[in-house]
Amino acid sequence: MKYLKTDLYLLIFIAFICGPASAGGLIAVSIPPLKNVVEDIAGDAFDVDLLISETESPHHANLKPTGVRSANNADMIIWLGASYETGMVKLIRSLPETKPVLGLLSHKAIAVLPHRQLHSVSEDSEHSGAKGDDHSERYEGHEEEGADDNEYEHGLIDPHIWLSPHTMIEVVNVIARELGTLEPSEAVTFRQNARALSERIEALELRMREALEPVRHVQFMVYYDALQYFEHSFGLTGGQAVTLNPVKDIGSVSVAATRSRMNDQNIACFFAEPQFGDKVLQKYLPNRDTEIYRIDPVGNTDWFDLMETLVAGLVDCLGKPEVAA
Predict the structure, then answer these.
(1) What is the mean pLDDT of the chain?
(2) pLDDT digits (tens, 9 = 90+) for 100-141
(3) How far is CA 70 from CA 82, 199, 219, 260, in A?
(4) What's the CA angle centered on 304, arms 51 and 69, to 5 degrees?
(5) Helices 303-318 and 32-42: angle between axes, nearest 10 degrees
(6) Contact residues for 149 (Cβ-Cβ < 8 A; gap 6+)
(7) pTM (predicted TM-score)
């Protein structure tokens, strides 16, 4: 009897330090901004694992063994598509056909924007969104095992859909429906959670719009053209970009043209993501008055915090009297 009590106490102790067991299955999501969104929709029905960490670039990150294991164990994988998470293409192709894989960029209920030309990108900001193609492919037409450096120029769709609050509400509703198909007994709860989450997104959008209104027409430059959805959502007309391809440097002629354009238009705010080093960026600066501001539109698992931080970073530079003048 003494040994039975000891074993019982040991089991209780192990259960305590390990935490509660998952109430349901597992959803694997590709990028950080999707994680807490899916968690809010899924509630206690599913655990949510992140495949690409906050410190990795989705454009060329290869999944670590833990990520591969999560993907293989998951009841569903949610990603954008092969034109963005290029390091996941081989894994997605290797999965059994019975594994549910939700590609958001190709879903017919989600509005997407085409890539912009690299003249003054604000000229394209009035383009309306088009719904994704209705097809069942797990990846978007790539024959290679991975994507090459030219993929971004060849791609038709701008993948940064999470930077539009309106599009994010579409994403939320799509995920809720897909989870309801996966776990029908929780479908009503998923819809309720999605509705509550959409209301929070709408409230945040209003606050963001108010904060950005004074700087809507201020000229600025971004290194990589990741903000089209954001600019389109909030009517920012001053944005220009250096490159569509985050993994390939541009030629010296384009560098000179960019520097000249920034100088002619007196652009004082140059925004870039953390993975682009100062040595790469400084050659574009026309003078010492132009500052490099760091923004991170992907490396945060809290979508609301990500969006608020992005707004704060833009307003911090664009709202300076000498810049907005």
Answers:
(1) 82
(2) 999 999 999 999 999 887 654 443 443 444 555 433 333 333
(3) 19, 31, 43, 48
(4) 10
(5) 140
(6) 245, 247, 248
(7) 0.82
